[in-house]
Amino acid sequence: MLPLSKANQIIDLALEKARAENFAPLAVAVLDAGGHLVAYKREDGAGIIRFDIAFGKAWGSLGMGFGSRELTERAEKNATFIGVLSTVSGGRMVPSPGGVLILDDNRIVVGAVGISGDVGGNDEICAVAGIELSGYAAATGIPK
Amino acid sequence: MLPLSKANQIIDLALEKARAENFAPLAVAVLDAGGHLVAYKREDGAGIIRFDIAFGKAWGSLGMGFGSRELTERAEKNATFIGVLSTVSGGRMVPSPGGVLILDDNRIVVGAVGISGDVGGNDEICAVAGIELSGYAAATGIPK
Amino acid sequence: MLPLSKANQIIDLALEKARAENFAPLAVAVLDAGGHLVAYKREDGAGIIRFDIAFGKAWGSLGMGFGSRELTERAEKNATFIGVLSTVSGGRMVPSPGGVLILDDNRIVVGAVGISGDVGGNDEICAVAGIELSGYAAATGIPK
Amino acid sequence: MLPLSKANQIIDLALEKARAENFAPLAVAVLDAGGHLVAYKREDGAGIIRFDIAFGKAWGSLGMGFGSRELTERAEKNATFIGVLSTVSGGRMVPSPGGVLILDDNRIVVGAVGISGDVGGNDEICAVAGIELSGYAAATGIPK
Predict the structure, then answer these.
(1) Range D11-27 average pLDDT
(2) Is B62 a residue whose pLDDT tops 90?
(3) Of A3, A44, A51, the CB nearest to D37
(4) In chain C, how long is the greatest CA-to-CA distance?
(5) Which residue of chain C comes nearest to A109, CA vs CA?
(6) D40: CATH
(7) Hey, which bits of C14-124 come out as E strands?
(8) Run of H or E including D137
(9) What is the residue range of A95's domain?
(10) Do B and D count as touching (3 or more CB pairs closer than 8 A)?
């Protein structure tokens, strides 16, 4: 449902946006709806935990069914629960903006993008750009 | 002590309640008194972490001997301890309402239901409905 | 792609076959293509490891892209590699017959069934029966 | 030492080889010398454990300092030790051909490629092709 060609296009467009904005080096992961990695690129200079954070933003979005911005807001209200979710998921849920759901024309979730490297807000800008310029809809929170 | 036929009935009645109330898509797990899965159904559209949360609400209830609403209240008072319990249990204890003990006519715990998908309060409403309409008593906190 | 209604039908038909054949009590798990549990039933009397075995037969089939009978044959030739795969997957790959891929009319893998409780060959008979009687095609090895 | 541009080139050339040979759908991971993922692509149709296997072939090669073909041969002679290494590494060492070291002009290891999807020998052919066509040297065993 999310072919490699589209996953790769999302990454390239997200990174194009990052370079245009002069953001810090990014790691960009694209997962299918089942939470499995389809494609990944890490820009030169990004740190060694960036894969896990990028993956966890995307996986956590798929886990709960909403973009990681929503998870971030819930973490501020209920830190303990989010800490537990981190354990439950084996460290695969990261409550920080930059995890964005990918929706097709029928509003079906076909995957998620997770980006890490700059502040969460900037990571998210690139994720949304990559998704929308590839012809999908992006959900940073609960899909409407 | 908790036959498959009853576990399945609890799930179906819980989901009937969820559809009548128009709640979000739910995952419903029924565990026996030993904490082992007897039956499970995940409605279409529920996220990929929902099984683990539903299971963890039920397992945590059996772990402590009270419904997960009580665990949620303790988490607010003592976040560190609940975080440790999460680790101790390998992520099998989730402090959020929606884990409910199943008691028979002699007030013996014969299992637990765990539901995830909507907010905890709504998950719990469905768990209680499923248990009570199946002829058991439900304990959302410490059994009386 | 694999709705709960169909997953549940597969389980019920597999268990019907098991009762007609007088097999031992079974645990039956149905996973979607991403390896996530959609529905599960454990017959009364099945042991407490049966969920993990049934799940692992199905997950392992999806992991490799062929039914677990093929994985079983490879395990006989290369025990070390299969042991490593067990570790790699966190115990989610079980090399024994009874894990069967579910294919739709276009030969797309939409999920897998895993059954445990009797000998692997009998588990597999029930998995195939449940899948085929539900209108899908079953692959116990490499899909043709 | 292994820029994203080169890692990506290695993957694309490896996949070009795979398509020319009509191999099964592949997952291709490129790691830097520190064992961290730089780039990854999974062809449509590859199973859900393929990332972990591809990663583990590459990581295991870096772990020991030789391509995974050598690890495979040692596994045949000393299965127990390889099983222990698998556990020691948390499932990140996979003893099957297809993990190949990337060496620069000074014979310094700058990373590794791991491929999974077809039989190990075919996976390895694609890894070597990708590395060599990108201007690096490949080591499928102990670097000379």
Answers:
(1) 98
(2) yes
(3) A51
(4) 39
(5) C1
(6) 3.30.450.150
(7) 27-32, 37-42, 99-103, 109-116
(8) strand D137-139
(9) 4-139
(10) no
Asked whether residue D144 carries a pLDDT value surpassing 90, the answer given is: no
Give me the count of residues in chain C: 144
Interface of D with C (CB under 8 A): 45-50, 52-53, 56, 75-76, 79, 82-83, 86-87, 91-96
Considering CB atoms only, which of A4, A36, A42 is closest to D39? A42
In a domain? residue D14:
yes
Residues of chain D in contact with residue C59, where contact means CB-CB under 8 angstroms, are: 48
Q: Which of B34, B74, D98 is nearest to C51 (CA)?
A: B34
Query: Which of B45, B76, B94 lies closest to A84 in CB terms?
Result: B94
| C-alpha pair distances (Å), A99 with each of A23, A39, A70, A72, A96 | 17, 15, 10, 10, 7
* A41 chain-D contacts, CB cut-off 8 A: 4, 8, 38-39
DSSP track, A80-104: HHHHHHHHHTTS----SS-EEEEE-
Q: Is residue A133 part of a domain?
A: yes
Question: Environment class of residue D106 by beta-carbon count within 10 Å: exposed (0-12), middle (13-18) or buried (19+)?
Answer: exposed
Compute the distance between CA of residue C91 and CA of residue C60 in angstroms, rounded to an integer: 9
pLDDT at C64 exceeding the cut of 90: yes
What is d(CA D52, CA D29) in angstroms, rounded to the nearest whole number? Answer: 9
Q: What is the pLDDT of residues D88-116, one digit of tens each?
A: 999 999 999 999 999 999 999 999 999 99
Q: Which residues of A touch B76 (CB under 8 A)?
A: 80
Distance CA B11, CA B100 (A): 13
Type of residue at B107: R
β strands within A15-103, DSSP E: 27-32, 37-42, 99-103
Is C144 within a domain? Answer: no
Please list every residue in chain B whose beta carbon sits closer than 8 Å to the beta carbon of residue A84.
56, 75, 82-83, 86, 91, 93-95
Does residue B144 have a pLDDT over 90?
A: no
**φ, ψ for residue D45 (rounded to 5)?**
100, -10
Candidate from A8, A36, A40 with C-beta closest to D37: A40
D7-20 average pLDDT score: 98
* Min distance C124 CA to chain B CA atoms (Å): 20
- Find the length of chain D: 144
DSSP B111: E
- Among residues D53, D55, D76, D57, the alpha carbon closest in space to that of D66 is found at D57
Number of domains in chain D: 1
D144 in a domain, yes or no?
no
Mutate which: B37, B38, B49, B53, vs C, most C CBs within 10 A: B37
Residue A17: is its pLDDT beyond 90?
yes
The whole-number average pLDDT for the span C108-134 is 98
Looking at residues C95-108, what average pLDDT do you find? 97
- The whole-angstrom distance between B37's CA and the closest CA on chain C is 7
Give per-residue burial for A72-100: e unless 16+ CB within 10 Å, then b: beebeebebbbbbbbbbbeebbbbbbbbb
Give the pLDDT score at C136. Answer: 98
C-alpha B83 chain-centroid distance? 19
pLDDT grade for C144, boundaries at 50, 70 and 90: confident
Distance from CA of C35 to the nearest CA of A (A): 7
Could you give the C-alpha distances from B70 to B25, B65, B142, C69, in angstroms and in order? 24, 10, 7, 46
